Amino acid sequence: AQSVTQLGSHVSVSEGALVLLRCNYSSSVPPYLFWYVQYPNQGLQLLLKYTSAATLVKGINGFEAEFKKSETSFHLTKPSAHMSDAAEYFCAVSDPAGGSYIPTFGRGTSLIVHP
Amino acid sequence: DSGVTQTPKHLITATGQRVTLRCSPRSGDLSVYWYQQSLDQGLQFLIQYYNGEERAKGNILERFSAQQFPDLHSELNLSSLELGDSALYFCASSRTGGRVADTQYFGPGTRLTVL
Prior knowledge:
A: 115 residues; six-stranded mixed β-sheet; five-stranded antiparallel β-sheet; B: seven-stranded mixed β-sheet; four-stranded antiparallel β-sheet
């Protein structure tokens, strides 16, 4: 069974600082991995996804994530935080071996950006 | 704007009542997914329809049902409502039937409050 753990329900950074949001997954085979962002009062929007091509995945708004199989991790980073990055971030995993590609979502990490 | 529309935006009702949430997918998308987002459960997958037929089922209660119509819009019916059903309900759509790592496009959600 697939599952995903996001470490830290809240992460606080200063504007201009590095953003690091952690995600660890469990899956029986190399999975598909996703990061979504949810701005207040909006639906989720895909930031990036890993589908077994390059392990370093670049997404929108300057975000990127690296798939590390040995660590079963897919952490999200951005070199320099902007105030507009304040939002809820969700990591999700789908396990092709399970016969369905419906992703399982983590509990989310709220990113707080201080001026 | 994801191209997925959901109505109504807000819904306030009483326990024991029945409500219908509506979703129109992006133009050309054949799959519709329903999710429930609450503080205690996070984002939970309820059900998926593909081209009018049920494709996958998640943690959907028996009091809940859904359907997808020939024009591909979908409705989620919630009956015998309980206080615990208060949540954000998201609809998402994707191009295919979910057997590949399709990107899901989320609507803005319907906030249901059961009093």
